[in-house]
């Protein structure tokens, strides 16, 4: 792949995906990268956002309010970052002539489908977090109809930060058995694989090869949290029988979770990119990179 050079800005650069984005961009060797953490850039300050975006060709927004349950009681605060903050970014990108790649979520959907959600499926969030993210999506598509890219992801895990895979590996050392929900379907996605995909999309955008709009940045295939936990154990040389299935009823959380979060990937074709790999293959690669895969 020929990498466009250009100057890239990564917001949320201290988070799980943000750190992977900075690494993925460094390995391509082409672009100059500005890594802005939460401490460096307050997305709710439009003047700061304008100044930060100036001089950049591509902005990848990995900054977000990610506390799903906390958003139920603090929806305004979540929307200030996930909604209005994204609008500030989009306006700044319009002024700077920059492409915006904005990371969104499966939570914009109600989760009651029985086949993968296409990119243009009607949205209807179940919770405050989903509503806040939808405000951001709508800002990108409204303010940057030709240069705005929304990449929805889901079930993200990675080396850095709190996520399901890290939690399973930690609890494996602390408990004999783990009860994991088996009634939510989704696509576990490695944050580094998503970072690489965002870099490829940014390249295609700069090269005029990728139409603006919505893309689904999740692994192919599908499983449940229970299926994912068993796979983590099996690949790491632990006994998957230590994972026991349970239902969402046993884990009452403030925010409702979608039961079905499987996303379709048809639009990648328009950008000349294949769908992302199967979740199980991706998980094996992620664990192998960390030296956690048991060799038979």
Short characterization:
The chain has 296 residues and is an alpha/beta fold. The protein has a domain of 199 residues: NAD(P)-binding Rossmann-like Domain (Rossmann fold, 3-Layer(aba) Sandwich).
Q: If you average the pLDDT, what whole number results?
A: 95
CATH-derived topology of the domain at 7-161 and 187-219 and 263-273: Rossmann fold
Q: Major sheet, described briefly?
A: 6 strands, parallel
Helix residue percentage = 25-40%
Helix-strand sequence: EHEHEHEHEEHEEEHEEHEH
In CATH, what is the class of the domain at 7-161 and 187-219 and 263-273? Answer: Alpha Beta
Shape: globular
Distance between the termini: 35 Å
Strand segment tally: 12
DSSP strand content? 15-25%
Specify the structural class.
alpha/beta
CATH superfamily of the domain at 7-161 and 187-219 and 263-273: NAD(P)-binding Rossmann-like Domain
Strand order of the largest sheet: 2-1-3-4-5-10
- Number of helices, where a helix is a run of at least 4 consecutive DSSP H or I residues: 8
Query: What is the CATH architecture term of the domain at 7-161 and 187-219 and 263-273?
Result: 3-Layer(aba) Sandwich
Uncertain stretches of 5 or more adjacent residues:
none
Description of the molecule:
Its EC number is 1.1.1.133. One of its GO terms (biological process) is dTDP-rhamnose biosynthetic process. InterPro entries: dTDP_dehydrorham_reduct, NAD(P)-bd_dom_sf, RmlD-like-bd. The protein has helices at 16-28, 46-53, 75-96, 128-143, 164-172, 191-206, 225-235, 279-289, and strands at residues 7-11, 32-36, 58-61, 99-105, 148-153, 156-157, 178-181, 185-186, 189-190, 213-216, 223-224, 243-246. The protein has 296 residues and is α/β, with parallel strands linked by helices. It has a domain at 7-161 and 187-219 and 263-273: NAD(P)-binding Rossmann-like Domain (Rossmann fold, 3-Layer(aba) Sandwich). The longest helix is centred in the N-terminal third of the chain and has 22 residues, at 75-96.
């Amino acid at each position: 792949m020929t990498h466009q050079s250009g100057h890239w800005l990564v917001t949320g650069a201290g988070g799980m995906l943000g750190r992977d984005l900075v690494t993925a961009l460094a390995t391509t060797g082409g672009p100059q990268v500005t890594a802005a953490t939460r401490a460096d850039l307050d997305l709710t300050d439009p003047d700061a956002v304008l100044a930060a975006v100036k001089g950049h060709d591509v902005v990848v927004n990995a900054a977000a309010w990610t506390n799903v349950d906390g958003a139920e009681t603090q929806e305004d605060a979540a929307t200030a970052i996930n909604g209005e903050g994204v609008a500030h970014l989009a306006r700044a990108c319009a002024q700077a002539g920059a492409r915006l790649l904005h990371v969104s979520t499966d939570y914009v959907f109600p989760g009651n489908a029985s086949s993968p959600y296409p990119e243009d499926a009607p949205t209807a969030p179940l919770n405050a977090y989903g509503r806040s993210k939808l405000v951001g999506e709508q800002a990108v598509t409204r303010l940057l109809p030709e240069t705005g890219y929304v990449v929805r992801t889901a079930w993200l895990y990675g080396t850095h930060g709190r996520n399901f895979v890290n939690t399973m590996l930690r609890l494996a050392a602390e408990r004999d058995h783990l009860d994991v929900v088996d009634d939510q379907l989704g696509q576990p996605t490695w944050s580094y694989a998503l970072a690489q995909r965002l870099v490829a999309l940014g390249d295609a955008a700069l090269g005029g090869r990728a139409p603006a709009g919505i893309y689904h940045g999740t692994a192919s295939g599908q499983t449940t949290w229970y299926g994912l936990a068993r796979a983590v154990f099996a690949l790491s040389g632990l006994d998957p029988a230590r994972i026991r299935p349970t239902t969402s009823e046993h884990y009452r959380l403030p925010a409702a979770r979608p039961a079905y979060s499987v996303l379709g990937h048809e639009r990648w074709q328009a950008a000349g990119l294949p769908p992302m790999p199967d979740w199980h293959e991706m998980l094996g690669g992620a664990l192998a990179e960390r030296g956690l895969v048991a060799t038979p």
